[in-house]
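[audit] Reproducing an earlier prediction to check determinism. Same input, same settings, fresh worker. If the tokens differ from the archived copy the diff job will pick it up downstream; this log only records the rerun itself.
[audit] input (513 residues):
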Amino acid sequence: MAIPIPSRQLFINGDWAEPLLKKRIPIINPTTEEIIGDIPAATAEDVDVAVQAARSALTRNKGKDWAFASGAVRAKYLRAIAAKIKERKPVLAKLETVDCGKPLSESEADMDDVVGCFEYYADLAEGLDAKQKAPISLPMKTFKSYVIKEPIGVVALIVPWNYPLLMATWKVAPALAAGCAAILKPSELASVYALHLLASVFITCLELGEVCREVDLPAGVLNILPGLGPEAGASLASHPHVDKISFTGSTVTAVKIMTAAAQRVKPVTLELGGKGPIVVFEDVDIDKAVEWTIFGCFYTNGQICSATSRLIVHESIAAEFLDRLVKWSENIKISDPLEEGCKLGPIVSRGQYEKVMNFISNAKSEGATILYGGNRPKHLKKGFFVEPTIITDVTTSMQIWREEVFGPVLCVKTFTTEEEAIELANDTHYGLGGAVVSKDRERCDRVSKLLQNGAVWVNCSQPCFCQAPFGGTKWSGFGRELGEWGLESYLSVKQVTEYVSDEQWGWYQPPKQ
């Protein structure tokens, strides 16, 4: 049964608005390869309108309606949004699945996380009220000082296509909790197939606009602008009235955003790609470690920036481990992602599918061995499906070891010593997520400290909680999302210091009377 695709416009100033140039982008279902609808495509002209709406939202009624409203007021709206999304979970999850190809069970879990994230930041918004005017201890009794936390202003939130509504929520919820006004936009992807890629990111994010309408979120507080990077993204990043940019996407695009932001010295938060290691020592329970290994690389069809896609396994257990890894991979159900029990759906688009297949082909031509997978599943004639793929006989100079694939592809190397394992793990330009698996707690602590990653998972891979910070090092970006750190990134800190003595300051000689 076909899933009805809502027809939406841009969401600007609390209502739907047709793009000024009337452009639209097709939505392609990655399971059927068919066009199932379209979404509006914003241009620079629409960006100007949205930015003005956001600025007006901040200054309306001298800021009392939003920016300087109490955190409790903003929390009420965040909880109302959470409740509406919870109510719409079945529909939103199916839209997410037909849009980007992830298994329905994953989309349903994503919707639960969206609800939890809005509720979490509602609590933090309320907590802001108690933190205002926090006193600062000073060495001079003639002065008193305190701190005010204020919204940073109008923020551009640029999100990827692998977790459309959830990644949007990671940015929208803390930005609104802080009192900012936001413009939400999908990322530009460095691909000749960018049109198809962008088309598969924004159905559920546009539905967030409808939710905001229903809860009467003040006009202009959240604006939603799907569109192509050169036409909308570039003008948003360089806009003189945008105060901060938060971007999740490719390193190539991040460089362009940083360059544009630098012209006006505006802050950026960047969460970029990854090529994460999972280091497996010889003392593990093999089946437990194998399951975490495939979860860390094949979940979300392998399209996770923090994927632990480089398996570094102790040579003494490598043969047995790889044998079990293949058997577990053979047991993964690959199907239409709406089917019950599906654990691996299609890649998001034809462009991304071809990119993944090229990585596999290049690995073979460079001398690596395709231990398992590497092809389209024989039982699926349509859709952008790729078998879970395990590649061995890999050297550290190979493309498959060095570059992010963004698909269900795992490359493997072995090690003999802990020092060698750490060296291999850190042998990458990236530094987003990494994992260590061992029964030796002290060893796990040692390795965790030495891994050059923003997140390290011990005896697991990919757990993510909105209470914990998330972000990377090196080419994986800087700044943190989620937790209190995510909220702080949308706040500006102002010190207020008062001279409280009745005495003359006395620095200068007073004039004669």
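[audit] rerun output stored. Observation attached for the diff report: Confidence is low (pLDDT under 50) at residues 188-200.
[audit] end
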